[in-house]
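pasting for ref. prot 1 ->
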Amino acid sequence: MSIVKINALTVPDEQREVLEQRFASRAGAVENSDGFEWFELLRPIEGTDQYLVYTRWRSEEDFQAWMEGPMKAAHQGGGGAGDGGDRPKPAASGSQVWSFEVVQQAAPKKA
């Protein structure tokens, strides 16, 4: 079955809008990756300052291929020599990745 990766991002209140805008402008960065099945950005309602970035993959190998390819390239910045390193400051102050295997699933019953 599929695997799920959840990135728990600690986001201060003043950076929430920045984080959401960055995810909104990611322009399909993961959707075209081989083995990708689902993405959700979950905003906390109460009791925590952690956003959850949920992705679902066909296999661990597909996730690792995305991590070493498109994701790595996107997070290294686009500039070449003399770039000046003016990448924006991260919106999150902490990050923790959780990994899960899907062992059961259900969908709504068709009427």
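and prot 2 ->
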Amino acid sequence: MGLIGEVLLLPFAPVRGSLWAVRQVLAEAERQYYDPSAVRAELALLEQRLVAGEIDEEEFDRQEDELLDRLDIGLRTGAGADNGTTG
């Protein structure tokens, strides 16, 4: 974008900066949500809750399916692989 375009868009700089920040926060939240190690930890906790009798089989199956879907997505997309070090 040329100098004239930058000058014309200057009043929108705070909005553009805010949108960038929101995108960064959403990307990090999604990375953490689909991080395979985090999902595996939640699966282990879920199994502990089942063994302890805190939840029944039906609730376990429902939550396990959700977590396995997240794990599958995380493994396919590589979520959590970069530990947030790329920008």
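The chain has a mean pLDDT of 88.
The CA atoms of residues 10 and 71 lie 42 Å apart.
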